[in-house]
Amino acid sequence: MNYSEVIKKLESLKNPKNVAGMARFGIKPKTKVYGIPIPELRKIVSMVSPSRIHDTARGGIGTKSKGKNHELALKLWDSKIHEARILAGFIADAEKMTEQQTERWVKSFDSWDVCDQVCSAVLDKTKFAYKKVFEFSERKEEFVKRTAFTLIACLSVHDKKMKDENFIKFFPLIKKASTDERNFVKKAVNWALRQIGKRNKNLNNKAIKLAKEIQMIKYKSAKWVANDAIRELTGEKVKNRLN
Predict the structure, then answer these.
(1) Any residues with CB less than 8 A from the CB of 37 and at least 6 apart, and which?
(2) Would 76 disulfide with which of 36, 50, 84, 152, CB 3.0-4.6 Å?
(3) Is the pLDDT of residue 84 over 60?
(4) Average pLDDT, the chain
(5) CATH number listed for the domain at residues 128-243
(6) b/e sequence 117-126, b meaning 16+ C-beta within 10 Å
(7) What string of H, E and C letters represents the secondary structure of the chain?
(8) Does the global pTM surpass 0.90?
(9) In the structure, what pLDDT confidence band is assigned to residue 1 with cuts at 50, 70 and 90?
(10) What are φ and ψ of residue 95, in 5° steps?
């Protein structure tokens, strides 16, 4: 499928009822919204490139066919259609993503679902993902800052080779950002802390210790981030899995 065919397919799947439902979940982007569910977008990936595979363990689309659709991904992003941007993340090639391109995409994030889907599908697989966490965590824009902590959560799940000490280097970022009262930031900070703590026993203990430190900070957001993380990380489900 070429660009025009993909756009035509997206337009054929418009669902106004879903758009209203998305708004109730805080998805209110400035771009056009068609209300297309993620499973339907994944079907389009298969149409764009039959050799690409679904990789449910990594939460996104696999990359058996690299590079062929990267230019299409860039065009889809520029369409300023919400679902096209998620689709762009699914088919983009992490090896071809540049820091400049990443910066442009991240600066135009305007909803939590685009942020999370694009981070999980492609940005966390770039060679500069780790560095970008530190850069984005210092930014003021809500969704750029969210990107930093979404990347941490995604790396915690996807990067099986990253060492514990590299995750521990994220702790000061998490503690500092726990005081950010903005909904889409604090939820990502909490997500990052929980995912690190579910990685292994060592990080579980250290994440719980960090959460208890955050719990003492006199901000509502910090207490929520900490209490929610402690509840999950000390729960039987997580403990049993790590054992």
Answers:
(1) 18
(2) 84
(3) yes
(4) 92
(5) 1.25.10.10
(6) bbbbbbbbbb
(7) CCHHHHHHHHHHCCCHHHHHHHHHCCCCCCCECCCCCHHHHHHHHHHHCCCCCEEHHHCEECCCCCCCCHHHHHHHHHCCEHHHHHHHHHHCCCCCCCHHHHHHHHHCCCCHHHHHHHHHHCHHHCCCHHHHHHHHHCCCCHHHHHHHHHHHHHHHHHCCCCCHHHHHCCHHHHHHHCCCCCHHHHHHHHHHHHHHHCCCHHHHHHHHHHHHHHHCCCCHHHHHHHHHHHHHHCCHHHHHHHC
(8) yes
(9) confident
(10) -70, -20
Q: Are 62 and 54 in contact (CB under 8 A)?
A: yes
Residue 63 CB neighbours (<10 A): 19
Encode burial over 183-217: b for 16+ CB neighbours within 10 A, e otherwise. Answer: ebbbbbbbbbbbbbbbbeeebbebbbebbeebbeb
**Tens of pLDDT, residues 38-83:** 999 999 998 887 655 444 334 444 444 456 789 999 999 999 999 9
**Do 35 and 16 form a contact (C-beta atoms < 8 A)?**
yes
